[in-house]
């Protein structure tokens, strides 16, 4: 029998957290919430659910998530975000996993889980799919130390889950633009630290390349208006990230993109 610790980082997630918690209640041996000083009812909701709660000033997505993992009582951890939901099929997959012993020659150190993004109220069945390693043995690796788009890296063999995590990342287009501004600032700061440089022509080129990738190659055109807007916003993200990196380069790092005023939840 394997017990799973579920870890979630939060800040002002009262609109999402109950749905997330309800989706893990049948598979979690414990739920660990690391909250970045929420001013809404997030902590109150988590307390009522019986979560183990840690209040910690936000120091970055990687460090917050690694801190949550470090508090786990169990070796196996499912790391999810407050705006994500474990689908019924994935719940069944995880229940089967807990009844196994994951031992022997085929033992794995972590599992990739498919994702399905919901955008503008509809699932993006073509351009909104992906996968991330979210179920893992915490002794087999750590979160990457990056400002944004962190991931857990394992030393060992990965496996695959079939059930999906459903991602409700954006309330509306305004919320999406807010996140784009925040994440591109973090990404540009990372690029500047790493010494990445871009020609200004890449601002336009990356928009076209990214839009076409999502809208045509990943068939976002079949996802209707939502698919078009997601592809369009993806293009905007990559262009603004490069433009901000160029600004940092030209201003010798005097623009501070590494310390945004508020954490924006994934």
Salient structural properties:
single chain; 266 residues; alpha/beta; Spore Coat Polysaccharide Biosynthesis Protein SpsA, Chain A; 2 domains; ten-stranded mixed sheet; two-stranded antiparallel ribbon; 7 helices; 12 strands; globular
**What form results from the Cα inertia axes?**
globular
Number of strands: 12
Please, what is the average pLDDT?
93
What is the CATH architecture annotation of the largest domain?
Answer: Alpha-Beta Complex
CATH topology of the largest domain, which one?
Spore Coat Polysaccharide Biosynthesis Protein SpsA, Chain A
Q: Can you give the helix content as a percent range?
A: 25-40%
Helix/strand/pairing category: alpha/beta
Please give the domain count: 2
Order of helices and strands: EHEHEHEEHEEEEEEEHHH
CATH class of the largest domain: Alpha Beta
Oligomer: single chain
What's the CATH H-level homologous superfamily of the largest domain? Spore Coat Polysaccharide Biosynthesis Protein SpsA, Chain A
Rg (CA only): 19 Å
Largest sheet: 10 strands, mixed
Strand content is 15-25%
Give the N-to-C terminal Cα separation: 31 Å
Uncertain runs with pLDDT below 50, 5 residues or more? Answer: none
Outline:
Helix content is 39%, strand content 21%. By secondary structure, the chain is of the alpha/beta class.
Q: What does this molecule look like?
A:
The protein has helices spanning 17-24, 42-49, 61-70, 88-99, 173-193, 201-217, 224-250; strands spanning 4-10, 30-35, 52-55, 76-79, 84-86, 110-119, 122-123, 129-137, 141-143, 152-154, 158-160, 165-167. The chain is α/β, with parallel strands linked by helices. The strands form two sheets. Strands 1, 2, 3, 4, 5, 6, 7, 8, 11 and 12 form a ten-stranded mixed sheet that branches. Strands 9-10 form a two-stranded antiparallel sheet. The longest helix is centred in the last third of the chain and has 27 residues, at 224-250. It is globular, with a radius of gyration of 19 Å.
């Amino acid at each position: 029998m394997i017990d799973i610790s579920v870890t979630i980082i939060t800040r002002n997630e009262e609109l999402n957290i109950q749905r997330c918690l309800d989706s893990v209640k049948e598979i979690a041996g414990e739920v660990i919430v690391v909250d970045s000083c929420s001013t809404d009812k997030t902590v109150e909701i988590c307390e009522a659910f019986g979560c183990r709660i840690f209040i910690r000033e936000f120091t970055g997505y990687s460090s917050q998530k690694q801190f949550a993992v470090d508090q786990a009582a169990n070796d196996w951890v499912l790391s999810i975000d407050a705006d994500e939901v474990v689908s019924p099929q994935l719940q069944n997959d995880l229940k089967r996993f807990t009844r196994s012993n994951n031992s022997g020659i085929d033992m794995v150190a972590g599992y990739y889980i498919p994702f399905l993004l919901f955008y503008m109220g509809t699932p993006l069945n073509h351009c909104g799919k992906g996968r991330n390693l979210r179920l893992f043995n915490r002794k087999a690796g750590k979160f990457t130390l990056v400002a944004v788009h962190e991931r857990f890296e394992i030393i060992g063999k990965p496996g695959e889950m079939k059930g999906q995590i459903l991602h409700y990342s954006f309330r509306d287009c305004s919320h999406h633009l807010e996140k784009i501004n925040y994440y591109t600032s973090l990404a540009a700061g990372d690029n500047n630290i790493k010494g990445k440089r871009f020609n200004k022509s890449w601002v336009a080129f990356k928009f076209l390349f990214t839009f076409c990738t999502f809208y045509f190659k990943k068939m976002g055109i079949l996802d209707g208006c939502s698919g078009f807007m997601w592809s369009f916003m993806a293009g905007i993200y990559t262009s603004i990230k490069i433009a901000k990196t160029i600004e940092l380069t030209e201003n010798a790092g005097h623009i501070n993109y590494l310390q945004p005023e508020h954490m924006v939840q994934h």
